[in-house]
Amino acid sequence: xxxxxxxxxxxxxxxxxxxxxxxxxxxxxxxxxxxxxxxxxxxxxxxxxxxxxxxxxxxxxxxxxxxxxxxxxxxxxx
Length: 78
Prior knowledge:
Order of helices and strands: EHEHEE
Distance between the termini: 27 Å
CATH topology: Eukaryotic RPB6 RNA polymerase subunit
Largest sheet: 4 strands, mixed
Number of helices: 2
CATH architecture: Alpha-Beta Complex
Number of domains: 1
């Protein structure tokens, strides 16, 4: 059976794994700690497809919303 890559679906927003220095900048900008970020499970199909691991932070970019572009961040958990 052929695997389906969810990242190619038009309704799935872009997910980007942040580098550690980008995470530190993000936490400084919002004056928060890593544990205050919203969570996403490592078992999420898109997280698995992009090869992200627990402890990493993903940037999720939703385009085409009424506001134009919406960006959120999620901490990957087991």
